[in-house]
Design a protein that fits this description.
By secondary structure, this protein is an alpha/beta fold. The protein folds into 2 domains: 231 residues, Aspartate Aminotransferase, domain 2; 124 residues, Aspartate Aminotransferase, domain 1. The protein contains 12 helices and 11 strands. The strands form 4 sheets. A 4-stranded mixed β-sheet has the order 1-9-8-5, with helices on both faces. Strands 3-2-4 form a 3-stranded parallel β-sheet, with helices on one face. The protein has a two-stranded antiparallel sheet with strand order 6-7. The longest helix has 21 residues. The model has no long low-confidence stretch (mean pLDDT 97).
Length: 370
Amino acid sequence: MPVPLLDLKAEFDPIADEVRAAIERVLQTQRFILGPEVQALEQEIAEYAGAAQAVGLSSGSDALLVSLMALGIGPGAEVLTTPYTFFATVGAIARVGARPVFVDIDPQTYNMDPALLESAITERTRAMIPIHLYGQCADMPAIMELANRHGIPVIEDAAQAIGSEIAGQRAGSFGALGCFSFFPSKNLGALGDGGMVVSDDEALAGKVRVLRAHGGQPKYHHRVIGGNFRLDALHAAVLRAKLPHLDGWTAARQGNAATYDRLFAEAGLADTLTLPHRVPGARHIFNQYVIRAPRRDELKQHLAERRIGSEIYYPVPMHLQDCFADLEHRPGDFPVSEQAARETLALPVYPSLGKTQQAEVVSAIKEFYP
């Protein structure tokens, strides 16, 4: 039985009429750039994320970039983040001319290890970007305590974590700014690229709004240089149609994760594989279900031969990427991140994944580890 890594069509089909109606609504108004659809989505996402303000942007990558710009981060500044992340996190730091300073990850959650954070702070540290990886929040209470004590603003990379929670608070609502991605494969996905910044700081959110439209305020009058970082109305309308279904999709992902846990235990694989860790009392939304597997690359090939999708997030940590060679890092500098890059593998966990399909995945893995 083929099992794809992700099945967007299965997500779309039950809500096709709602999505088409949303698109038709925009077509009838012919207002494609910002406008009422984007404004309405901003209000809905702000409420969902537990933030006072939200600003629609062209992508999650641009959300990170504009957040750094709004904080005035530039050459000479250092920004703390982890090397085990998607490129956009570190790329945004480099694009504003700042220096990324890496902090290794917690081996269980794959998120920034707060115990290593303080030793990385210098007089040049101007921001921190913790990443809520795979749908689980970083230890934000510990990170925020340290950041507040040192007066360092926090930008949350919540691209994979919309609706996740820790300490009763939602991802994106802890720091000065929180960044979301609506890339189609995310739990809440647009028809293409899209993103959002949330904040409780009205003035800071206002800066993001100005920066997303070339820095013009009013139009054609520029005190700052921004860019074209606007969220399209069509994407906003589609996201508004999908948002009421998000909690149901999250519950299905959580159910699929629990099913995997049970099937792996029944197959006697719980000791062979490291299964996802859940922070007690937190809400994990399972953007990915990631295992740590011996002979990972061979296992991935084995699954592919049986038409089972899987993905490696991320095979090369940021400190070892060629474009960051000027940072002069070497293998071994961030050993936990490097180990995760060698051993982790994401399995299908999308909401419509069937129990028979999950049994097929576990059976194939059991076959690999007899």
